[in-house]
Amino acid sequence: MIETTPRFWEIFFEVYEALPRQGPGNRASAAKALSLCGGLPPMPVILDLGCGVGGQTLHLSELMSGTIVAMDNHAPFIERLKAALAELGLANRVQALVGDMAQPSLPPESFDLIWSEGALYNIGLEKALKVCRGLLRPGGFIVFTDAVWRKENPPAEVKAGFDLDYPAMGWAADVLATVKRCGFELQGRFTLPDEAWWTDFYTPMERRINELQGKYAQDAEASATLDLIAREPELHRRYSDYYAYEFFVARRP
After folding, report:
1. Residue-level pLDDT at 3
2. Residue 209: helix, strand or coil by DSSP?
3. Interaxial angle between packed helices 6-16 and 220-239, expressed in degrees from 0 to 180 and rounded to the nearest 10
4. 135-175 pLDDT, tens digit each
5. Which DSSP string corresponds to 104-146?
6. To the nearest 10°, the Cα dihedral for 87, 91, 95, 99?
7. Which neighbouring-strand residues pair with 136?
8. pTM for the structure as a whole
9. Which long-range contacts (CB under 8 A, 24 or more apart) does 77-84 make?
């Protein structure tokens, strides 16, 4: 078992805060997921839960009209997103907030679309979907990605990695059952392509790790932590056929 000390998280966030996004995804996949949301109003009100630094938030702002509330519980992510919004002239359309997705303190039934890429699992998928259902207007959409298994008997090091970060991870069928149990109607789903893992996530991650390995060359603890983080993209190179990220699109009746 990895001991996640305060120093571990310090180095972890020094890597992740510099990335374009904090999990797999890309603009093309976001556009594909949006195409499954038939019947959105012309100017929808959108909530991006667990937005990170806002890579997908900015894609949504390009792909859609309307307004966006982007929320994450890690304040440095939100500060970076606010800076990007100011630079791009989007502060009038996108509001970036520090908040807890388990208790977002937002008005009920006030959103037409809730978006969340790789974040809902942090509070448990069923709990997260119930929170989202309460925030959606009738007829509103929930669009999210979640990690799922694709093959039985994954290698021990792959299983150990997911057991640490996402011990409740299941199969696509498990996610679909949870979606239905929480009162949503599935509109569609698809698997993220492999480039969605690399272009804006693992490739810049490996570049950032290399930069920090130079910075911490004389710091054994930091260097070991960076080596640990670097295992994730390397395992993906070797074993990505055992798991996937899936986009799920569902509607509140």
Report:
1. 60
2. helix
3. 60
4. 999 999 999 999 999 999 999 999 998 998 899 999 999 99
5. ----TT-EEEEEEES-GGGG-HHHHHHHHHHHEEEEEEEEEEE
6. 40
7. 111
8. 0.96
9. 77/17, 77/22, 77/51, 77/52, 77/53, 78/51, 80/17, 80/53, 80/54, 81/51, 81/52, 81/53, 81/54, 81/57, 84/53, 84/54, 84/58
| Residue whose tokens read 């037409």 | 112
Distance CA 136, CA 40 (A): 12
pLDDT tens digits along 83-93: 999 999 999 99
- Backbone φ and ψ for 6, nearest 5 degrees, come out as -55, -35
Instruction: Give the burial class of 35: count Cβ atoms within 10 A of its Cβ; 0-12 exposed, 13-18 middle, 19 or more buried.
Output: exposed
Instruction: Report residue 189 as tokens.
Output: 């789903």
Q: How far is CA 210 from CA 7, 117, 118, 249, in A?
A: 18, 26, 25, 37
CATH architecture of the domain with range 6-251: 3-Layer(aba) Sandwich (3.40)
User: What token pair was written down for 26?
Assistant: 């890309």
Q: Where are the domains of the chain?
A: 6-251
Amino acid at the residue 160: A
* Token pair in block for residue 75: 């304040």
Which amino acid makes up residue 214? G
**Distance in angstroms (rounded) separating the CA atoms of residues 7 and 197:** 26
- Determine the straight-line distance between the first and last CA of the chain, rounded to whole angstroms: 43
- Spatial separation of the C-alpha atoms in residues 63 and 27, rounded to whole Å: 9
The three-point CA angle 167-81-87 to 5° equals 160
